[in-house]
TrEMBL record:
Protein name: Odorant receptor
Signal peptide stretch: none
Species this chain originates from: Folsomia candida
Lineage, broadest ranks: Eukaryota, Metazoa, Ecdysozoa, Arthropoda, Hexapoda
Keyword entries, A-Z: Membrane, Transmembrane, Transmembrane helix
Statement: the UniProt record of this protein carries the keyword Membrane: yes
Spans traversing the lipid bilayer: 39-59, 71-90, 133-160, 180-198, 205-222, 253-276, 288-311
Record's keyword annotation contains Transmembrane helix: yes
Length: 384
């Protein structure tokens, strides 16, 4: 439960203005929905600005296709990064706003079940104030925070030199000639950079929030399964396992969608940042170039954080069920009810899919397949 300490840290860094339809109360250690008037400006209006940026990026892509002579490799890569982040932001926030009540209920029930299980191990050693996962997530948060600012300044610099967002440049130049008046160029740079920065920071807040919540939920599930493995297979322990399984099943649709988005985002974002870090070295001026190596590092850290947790949920629960069934068979005749219940239990797994469709469950084989695909596409992009 010590990993819950990371959520207030995330709120202080990223959600000082932006808000989501649910929030965490450190005093009660519970989540609650937020449907107040504050969301009009801090959530709905902010998401409208993000959607406008996504629409502008799509229009820019269409314009570049119509006039290919204006297309540059760097511009394409920046638009790809922007589209990946904005699509993830809009998709995830809309999905969570629709199921916010179910998500809050799931989170609170999960915390409650973890606390009930902790009572069984009341004599356990006290946990440290900050565990390893909390420290790693804190570093992830603080490294992610300045990236939107550098990205926005770089895109603003390219925009006023007509190397990025040509439609915005044409619109601004029609109002006030940018190459004639320095004041026009300065004002345009400030406005465009503020716009890019607002959207980029909102995108980063949504992305980091998805990583944080997924890591915290995965850590609580794995920790609970590990504790259950220390209990003897009995009616009480089986019922506790069933509660965790029901909780995971109730939110399977949204968890499958979030897992799909995170895996897709991590793949596309990391491959793009790897390509830019190698091929654009010396082309992008410092310190803006650092956005892409650090972005690649953060992408790999996020993948290495979340993928093992998703896999461990299925692997650890599978081993637990095999051990329980073996021990119950040895006691055959004395625990018939428990033996029947044990045979009906299924592992707790994170599915990847959308809606009612499930493509696969995160297993041990998923890790090697994902890493090999990540490496292959990076190498193919560099050799193209």
């Amino acid at each position: 439960m010590s990993t819950l300490q990371i959520i207030p840290i995330y709120h202080k860094v990223f959600l000082f203005y932006f808000k989501f339809p649910f929030l965490y109360d450190p005093a009660t250690r519970r989540f609650k929905t937020d449907g107040g008037k504050d969301l009009i400006y801090s959530f709905y209006l902010a998401e409208c600005v993000v959607i406008s940026c996504m629409v502008l990026a799509i229009i820019e892509v269409v314009n570049d296709i119509r006039y290919p002579e204006n297309i540059g490799v760097l511009e394409i890569l920046l638009i790809v990064v922007a589209l990946i982040l904005t699509v993830f932001n809009v998709t995830s926030t809309i999905a969570l706003s629709i199921v916010k009540n179910e998500f809050v209920a799931f989170y609170n029930d999960l915390i409650c079940q973890v606390e009930l299980l902790d009572e069984v191990f009341a004599k356990r050693k006290p946990t440290k104030k900050l565990d390893k996962l909390t420290i790693i997530l804190s570093i992830f948060i603080f490294l992610s925070a300045p990236m939107p600012l550098l990205f926005a300044i770089f895109c603003g610099y390219l925009t006023i030199h007509d190397s990025f967002a040509h439609l915005l440049y044409a619109w601004a130049d029609a109002i006030c000639p940018l190459n004639t008046y320095f004041a026009c160029k300065s004002i345009t740079f400030i406005v465009v950079t503020a716009y890019y920065g607002f959207v980029a920071f909102n995108d980063t807040a949504a992305l980091v929030g998805g990583v944080i919540n997924s890591a915290v939920i995965g850590n609580m599930l794995i920790d609970s399964v590990t504790k259950l493995a220390r209990l003897s297979p009995s009616l009480y322990s089986i019922q506790i396992y069933q509660r965790f399984r029901i909780l995971a099943k109730n939110l399977e649709a949204i968890s499958a969608l979030v897992a799909s988005l995170l895996l897709s985002l991590g793949f596309g974002f990391t491959v793009t940042c790897n390509f830019v870090s190698v091929r654009m070295a010396g082309v992008i001026p410092m310190p803006f170039y650092l956005v892409f190596p650090i972005g690649s590092l953060l992408g790999m850290v996020g993948i290495r954080l979340l993928l093992p947790y998703g896999i461990a949920c299925h692997e650890n629960s599978s081993k637990l069920l095999v051990e329980w069934r073996t021990r119950l068979r040895l006691k055959r005749g004395n625990m018939r009810l428990e033996e029947k219940m044990g045979r009906m239990l299924i592992p707790i797994g994170i599915r990847v899919g959308s809606g009612e469709f499930s493509f696969f469950v995160l297993k041990k084989s998923t890790r090697s397949t994902y890493y090999m695909a990540l490496m292959d596409y990076t190498v193919n992009a560099l050799m193209a």
